[in-house]
Amino acid sequence: MFFKKWLSFLLVVALSLGMMVPLARADDVLDIKGDSAILMDAESGQILYEKNVDKPLPPASMTKLMTIILAVEALKDGRVTLNEKVTASENAWRLGGSQIWLEPGETMTFNDMLVAIAVGSANDCCVAVAEHLEGSHEAFVKRMNQKAKDLGMKNTHYINAYGLHDDNHYTSARDMATLGRYALTFPDILKFTTIKEYSLRSGEFILYNTNKLLWWYEGADGFKTGWTNQAKYCLVSTAKRNGLRLIGVVMASPEPRGNFSDSMAMYNFGFARYAYKSLANQNTVCGLTKVGKGLTDVVEAGPMREIGSIIPKGKEEGVTWVYSVASYIDAPVKKGDRLGEARVMVDDKVVRKVPLLAMQHVPRGSVWQTVMKAWNKIFLIDSR
User: Fold this and answer.
1) Catalytic residue among 36, 89, 98, 121
2) What is the pLDDT of residues 133-187, one digit of tens each?
3) Is residue 145 domain-resident?
4) CA distances from residue 152 to 69, 194, 367 in whole angstroms, order as listed
5) Is 64 part of the annotated catalytic residue set?
6) What distance in Å separates the CA atoms of residue 204 and residue 112, rounded to the nearest whole number?
7) Which of 146, 171, 276, 321 is deepest in the core (most CB within 10 A)?
């Protein structure tokens, strides 16, 4: 009893003196059962929790996130449309594991194929899409490995587009989080991964999303589950609350649904201890740059994306920002041309840089238009 009273007295004294009791470390409060895990701030890439993050492990159907990314890239590049018909080959029909039982020669829209991959984790659709985009499954897998290399995924190697086990098919929690950050640059990916239920073949076949966080966790909207006997229970996911978006990866969880419980525990930790402070949105005019030889004299500079930063809760006032823009540029100026940079600082330390881009297109003026602009300026000055 005496010890408890003495401990309480010391705590009161500490608080009265303005002393801060530090937050518990993630390792002290999280009991993650998965063999490997990571919790990352999606915007900055800051790691909030990690466990064996670079350990190569089989990803199972988390592989399909890369497949979806390459498919959405093809959409963005105009190489395919959502309504385009995709024909299933005998190779797609032969696959085992999770599937929608495509028949050789069966056709389905590219959109429905992607939904079947994102929602129903359909292996056969992965092969059909791969062959449609690259001519062969092998050529598509080659592109997957090249994209992984381009993104700096150092502990990743793909053998197939769907995730059935192979000893040479592996990735790491850090690499999956990196892939998740890249996936977030394509808004269409979240549109696919947030679908909870979807009907195919005129309602004869119903898909239910394998990612149960969509039902169980507020703010969850991606990405992909995975399971094989060798990989155990896996999940790469993302959730957003009050402007703060986090990415979580759990690999080799030994218990059914352990990938979900581990992920929710990490998210609870992250959202309880961190906040996001927004400083400027994409429509904010950060500065003006004079334009020479253009139809207008100035162009507005705005941020490429929202300006803000993750910050430990209670320290939001420590976030500030500064910016610089070019003082002069010759026309023509294209909308999106880089004109400067904004720097976000936490306690006077730069934690993030955001390019400032031209918000309008400024065409180059003709000789006659340039002369008239100069004449009007002179006339206006004289008329004063």
Assistant:
1) 121
2) 999 999 999 999 999 999 999 999 999 999 999 999 999 999 999 999 999 999 9
3) yes
4) 16, 27, 49
5) yes
6) 14
7) 171
